[in-house]
Design brief:
Strand order of the largest sheet: 3-2-1-4-5-6-11
CATH class of the largest domain: Alpha Beta
Oligomer: single chain
Order of helices and strands: EHEEHEHHEHEEHEEEHEEHEEHH
Helix content: 40-55%
Radius of gyration: 19 Å
Distance between the termini: 36 Å
Low-confidence stretches: none
CATH superfamily of the largest domain: NAD(P)-binding Rossmann-like Domain
Number of domains: 2
Length: 327
């Protein structure tokens, strides 16, 4: 069977494509390469299709030309700050393009959909750890696009027989242990790669946003999960969905949070380098603590964390960035 991975040349899409290939799935990557990287396409990918999801008729044609069994949908814009400044860009790229994918699925009778969602659907949490039944109240346009797609696929299940699992990520981090894949965002907005890149490129100043959060050390606390563990969760979710046809919403996190200062200290320990940084005011929409309950993922998917201890996350990311910095 063929699995279509939209955004498969991106950070999580590429890790998941590698995991699918390893499990024997015929994996087709579709990417417009606006942010995806050709060097992140895993070995063994069956086909790479360069198309933009905004081209609806072309996407429908692609579905008709391939015997697609399921779609894993990663393609989206992800920068929260940019979504505030240019919401139209985010509603077009994340919402309208997702509708185009769903229309192609309906027209070609593809029933299985794994959606790359986000902890941003929760907004400011009422309690920690966050469970899937927590009220959804996204506070930025990026989170709103993910929330809206979740509502749409609920309706599509009822009306069209779509079966889905929406995976709500917390903070993806780390790199493929084989050093074949890793983060290559431009610009980079995530904490761990920015710390490591600042050590490799002395011209770059590391900026830390917010030192006055109501936390133990004044910095924001996040739940960091390794990209390889995220990838395995997608494969498990796909297998579960195809076996049971039971749609659901599932958090992907570790149920443990680390503050920015703790990440800085751990990165300094692992790299053996002092990490200078510039303090900046916290950004609009930033919340103090985001930590997931992952009980549901364990129970339904049998998901086990193998790489998501913070030492492994930073060590694999450091190995990746040192490798790519030499290019």
């Amino acid at each position: 069977m063929s699995i279509l991975v939209t955004g498969g040349a991106g950070y999580i899409g590429s890790h998941t494509s590698k995991a699918l290939i390893r499990q024997g799935f015929d994996t087709i990557i579709l990417d417009n390469f606006s942010t995806g990287k050709r060097e992140l396409i895993p070995k063994g990918t069956s086909e790479v299709i360069e198309k933009d999801l905004a081209e609806k008729e072309s996407i429908i044609k692609t579905f008709k030309e391939h015997d697609i069994e399921a779609v894993l949908h990663f393609a989206s814009l992800i920068r929260v700050g940019e979504s505030y400044n240019d919401p139209h860009k985010y509603y077009a790229a994340n919402l309208i393009n997702s509708l185009n994918v769903l229309e192609a699925m309906i027209e070609t009778n593809v029933k299985y959909f794994i959606f790359s969602s986000s902890a941003a659907v929760y907004g400011i949490p009422d309690h920690i750890p966050i469970v899937e039944s927590h009220v959804l109240n996204p506070v930025n346009p990026y989170g709103k696009t993910k929330y809206m797609i979740e509502e749409i696929i609920r309706d599509y299940e009822r009306a069209y027989g779509l079966h889905f699992i929406s995976l709500r990520y917390f903070n993806a981090a780390g790199a493929d242990p084989d050093r074949e894949l890793g983060e290559m965002h431009d610009p980079e907005t995530h904490l761990i790669p920015n710390i490591l890149i600042s050590l490799l490129d002395k011209k770059r100043t590391l900026e830390i946003f917010g030192m006055d959060f109501p936390t133990k050390d004044g910095t924001a606390i996040r739940d960091y999960i390794h990209a390889t563990d995220l990838a395995e969760a997608h494969v498990s979710a796909l297998t579960y969905l195809m076996e049971t046809e039971k749609s659901d919403f599932i958090n992907l996190g570790t149920s443990k949070g680390f503050s920015v200062r703790e990440i800085l200290d751990k990165a300094a320990e692992i790299t053996g380098e002092k990490i200078p940084f510039k303090e900046k005011p916290k950004r609009k929409g930033d919340v103090a603590v985001l930590v997931a309950s992952n009980d549901k993922a364990h129970q339904l998917l049998g998901w086990k964390l193998e790489y998501s201890d913070i030492d492994t996350i930073i060590r694999t990311a450091w190995a990746w960035h040192k490798k790519t910095a030499k290019r």
